[in-house]
Design brief:
single chain, 350 residues, alpha/beta, Quinone Oxidoreductase, Chain A, domain 1, Rossmann fold, 2 domains, 7-stranded mixed beta sheet, 13 helices, 17 strands, globular, ADH-like_N, metal-binding, NAD(P)-bd_dom_sf, zinc, Alcohol dehydrogenase catalytic domain-containing protein
Length: 350
């Protein structure tokens, strides 16, 4: 099969490799139709990482089942599916209670199986395949991984009707967070430095959009919240911007409010000075949010798929660019250069 493999420059070489074979009777083989580039992928872009060299990456995808194991009954060849790419070891205490997003061996397992979507085919357990209604396209379904991350953060936040919410970052995660917060009955302000992303946020229902590079974000947020600060702030930028955005999140939240950390950190020890005395005295809650899994009895990805199928979330507006897998390096350049390209969700057709 054709696959994009990470090279020493941190870019991709499109080559032919072996198609994976179904290893267990409960697993299936999927022909990938569309996959996406997310913020996590971009943090690895143009970095020489020996552990990823000559490996397949990618974890936002939808496709068609082409082969099933002998014990699979939930899907069949020809079924259109969105694939949930979080797979733990299946043996730890967290996997046992469907909290596989915090499985200690999550990345060791998923990067060898389900998180390999920059290719033509992928294998995984049938339980990770969610059937798509006929009216939901592969392109739309590929964005559901993004929404699932935001859904988990929404659940952790305990959001309530009429809450005031600030979202930092108007990328795919932030725009998904915006839509879910609005569905929850909140008033939402969103902060970014890219005008094209903020324009999309406004079209998706943001009550206030703020370019923090050209305006006084803190002053505008205090005006938006009657001087108190937001009930909940979602940090959705992550990566190298975290040393700036996390302190900003603390400054935007009210006394006894919540800061939910959705954006991902880079690996290793990172020192970010914060006003810890204020955080303690104001009883501000800092809530880390990691990927997604189940909430109570519900798969968080299935919850998002249901919202999409019912027309309650707008995914099409977030898909700004589409490339072929052969053009993956150009796609990454476009996704990275969002201030000039206007990119939000960049899709790859496989």
């Amino acid at each position: 099969m054709k696959a994009a493999l990470k090279n020493r420059e941190g870019k991709f070489d499109v080559e032919e490799i072996n198609t994976p074979e179904i290893p267990h009777p409960e697993w299936v083989l999927v022909k990938i139709k569309v996959t996406g580039i997310c913020g996590t992928d971009l943090r690895h872009w143009k970095k020489d990482e020996p552990e990823f060299r000559h490996e397949v990456m990618g974890h936002e995808l939808a496709g068609e089942v082409v082969e099933v194991g002998s014990k699979v009954t939930s899907v069949k060849p020809g079924d259109r599916v969105v694939v949930e790419t979080l797979l733990g070891d299946g043996t730890c205490d967290w996997c046992r209670v469907q909290q596989y997003n915090v499985c200690p061996n999550l990345y060791a397992v998923r990067t060898k199986t389900l998180s390999r979507s920059f290719a033509e085919y992928l294998i995984g357990p049938a339980e990770k395949m969610h059937l798509l209604p006929d009216h939901v396209s592969f392109e739309e379904a590929a964005v559901l991984d993004t929404f699932s991350v935001s859904m988990h953060a929404i659940q952790l936040s305990g959001i309530k009707v009429n809450d005031t919410v600030v979202i930092i970052g108007a990328g795919p995660i932030g725009l998904a967070q915006l839509q879910l917060a609005k569905l929850s009955g909140a008033d939402v302000a969103i902060v970014d430095v890219v005008d094209s992303s903020l324009k999309i946020a406004q079209e998706l229902g943001a009550d206030l959009v703020i370019n923090s590079k050209t305006g006084d974000a803190h002053k505008k947020i205090m005006g938006f919240t009657d001087g108190k600060g937001a009930d909940i702030v979602f940090e959705c930028a992550g990566g190298p911007s975290m040393p700036q955005t996390l302190p900003q999140a603390i400054s935007y939240v009210r006394v006894s409010g919540k800061v939910v950390v959705v954006g991902g950190f880079d690996a290793g020890d990172i020192a970010i000075p914060l006003p810890w005395q204020h955080i303690q005295m104001a009883e501000i809650k800092i809530i880390p949010s990691a990927s997604y899994a189940f909430w109570d009895i519900h798969s968080e990805m299935k919850l998002c798929l249901d919202l999409l199928a019912k027309g309650k979330i707008n995914v099409k507006k977030m898909i700004t660019h589409t490339f072929k897998l052969d053009d993956i390096n150009q796609a990454f350049e476009t996704a990275q250069d969002k201030e000039n390209s206007g990119a939000v969700f960049v899709a790859l057709q496989v």
